[in-house]
Design goal:
This protein has about 160 residues and is mainly alpha-helical. It is about 70% helix and about 5% strand. It is built from six helices and three strands. The model has no long low-confidence stretch (mean pLDDT about 90).
């Protein structure tokens, strides 16, 4: 195994460890992993379409749709008309913001502490490098098959 292959393996193991940490965190809070991601995505105070969430977070459409229906039925989400009249926008209700705060509180604190420590050791170029790798990986996979590989939100 050459140096590049070892680096890719290390990076993949690190990303799997991160994904696993979010999965375990969600489970211990009684939430589904993708529900946690949906709450995280919506907790920015903006409205988002299901399509946008699928694309940005790489969550299958059926999963987002199921989570939206469940959270809306619980009173945590509202569906708002889009300005263009096409796809409805999703937003947290006041009860949803309280629920998201309760579910996400621990993960936000852990993320911020981990990021501060990482940036102190490696600079904020760490984040730029991760974004660049993700974009280049999607581009390369797209060149080898579907040109919109990372734009679909399908798994």
């Amino acid at each position: 195994m050459d140096q590049t292959e070892r680096a890719i393996r290390r990076l993949m193991l690190a990303t799997e460890k991160i994904d696993g940490a979010y999965y375990l965190f969600a489970r211990r809070r009684g939430a589904k992993e993708n529900e946690l991601t949906l709450l995280w995505a919506l907790d920015d105070g903006q409205t988002h379409s299901q399509r946008q969430i699928c694309r940005d977070w790489m969550i299958p459409k059926t999963t987002v749709n199921t989570n939206v229906k469940e959270l809306a039925a619980a009173g945590y989400l509202e569906l708002l008309p889009a300005e263009d009249g096409r796809e409805k926008q999703i937003a947290l209700t006041p009860a949803g913001r309280a629920y998201a705060a309760r579910v996400l509180r621990g993960i936000y604190a852990a993320e911020q502490a981990a990021m501060r420590q990482t940036v102190a050791a490696y600079s904020d170029e760490f984040v730029n490098a991760m974004e660049a790798f993700a974009d280049r990986l999607c581009d390369e996979l797209g060149r080898r098959g579907d040109p919109d590989f990372c734009e679909t939100g399908e798994r």
